[in-house]
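Lab notebook, entry 428. We have the chain sequence and a SMILES string for nicotinamide-adenine-dinucleotide, and the next step in the workflow is to get a structural model of the bound complex before anyone spends time on docking refinements. Request logged below.

Task: model protein plus nicotinamide-adenine-dinucleotide, output structure tokens.
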Amino acid sequence: MIKKLLLKFNSKKFKVGVIGLGYVGLPICERFSRAGIEVIGVDNDPNKIKILKKGQSYIKSKKLKNFKYFKNNKKNLSINYKILNKCDAILICLPTPLKNFKPDMSYIFDCAKKIKTFLKPYQLLVLESTVYPGATDELINIIRQKKIILGKNFFVGYSPERENPGDDQFTYKKTPKIISGFSKNCLNLMDALYKNIINKRVKSDDLKSAELSKLLENLYRAVNIGLINELKIICDYLRIDIFKVIDLASTKNFGFQKFLPGPGLGGHCIPIDPYYLSWISKKKGYQPKFIPLAGKINTMMPSWVVKKMLTKLKNRKKKILILGVAYKKNVDDDRESPSFEIMKILKKQKISFEYNDPYFDKIRKGRQNKIIKQSVSLNKDNLKKFSAVILVTDHDQYDYKFIAQNSKIVFDTRGVYKKFNFENIFFC
Ligand SMILES: NC(=O)c1ccc[n+]([C@@H]2O[C@H](COP(=O)([O-])OP(=O)(O)OC[C@H]3O[C@@H](n4cnc5c(N)ncnc54)[C@H](O)[C@@H]3O)[C@@H](O)[C@H]2O)c1
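Result returned:
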């Protein structure tokens, strides 16, 4: 029977279900459907289901712009998990946020409890979400039941996602994907499944190493960004241009990878995942030192950039325009964005501010989703109304020359203006 499932995966004659159609799940649906495989999608947000059925996408990305699969296959989309009962493979792409600096696994584990009733022999269940080592085993314990024998007639795998939203150069052809399985059979099935959409699969013969490898990838970034952010502060004290230093060091053709300083971290991965590792490490008896330190430095960056800005503005009347609320350039994702932290600080100090972001025409807050601000358009008259502009997100869409020419002063937290020669730019 495992051969039958392998054959299905190899011949593309199978159904793949995806739970959670967000930044990870939706691109996966697009890829499987493009490979000619039947896709079933489940998301608990009825609004997202409605949008997808219209053939639109709530994620602004080139690849998803013309994604019409669910418009043409409306029956394959639902808020109800039951629709997955005929799937040969089920991929869980649900959020794994933090709650009081501890992993909030409720999305995954609640989902496991719900799908348990209709899981059946000869299915492959895959976790794609970022988790701590041991989480897939906990998921397995939830779904265990008489009718399925793990590794024999029911299969489980873990494969962390390497999606890079906003990066149009990112392709699954170039990016290898880690796959792992509960057993050898599981791993073979994982390989056959992902072969349909990924050119290079990298096998891990255990689940925990694969789980930890994803945390390492994000921790590596968090720590290096923390280091370069701290160097930015040191350079400020030493009156040395950090960007010049980075350019010089980057000429080393071995053992150095370039990281750039910024206004702080954002997104659903880098600010969150290190805490997953800290939590499990602490639970097992070791209190990490390095990991929380990087988090501390990255977290203090918004207040550092605001302090620099206000010191420079001194007693001038302050009305600030924040450029960008997305957590990084060219994405419509504002989760954990440092812009919100900057807004909070300004609000606390009773400094008036507005924002612009081509990806967010409004920002909303609270359960009622109340609109709290609307994006200000970037025309000459508007720019002149502000005492300063602070560049937080370096979207490619911005006309940087125009902004500098029409603003009184620009505080650049990203180093974009290094290639220009304007006198009203202040790096912070
Ligand atoms: N965003 C990224 O770039 C990225 C990259 C690699 C890994 N990850 C990881 O992948 C996982 C998913 O992240 P994401 O960015 O896609 O999250 P997301 O919030 O964009 O997507 C999650 C989706 O799940 C839906 N959902 C929530 N609860 C549900 C439920 N109970 N049942 C069905 N649907 C439900 C939401 O409506 C949403 O559409 C996380 O673990 C994240 O850390 C994200």
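Notes for the group: Residues 222 and 273 are 9 Å apart (CA to CA). Worth checking against the assay data. The first strand starts at residue 15 and ends at 19.
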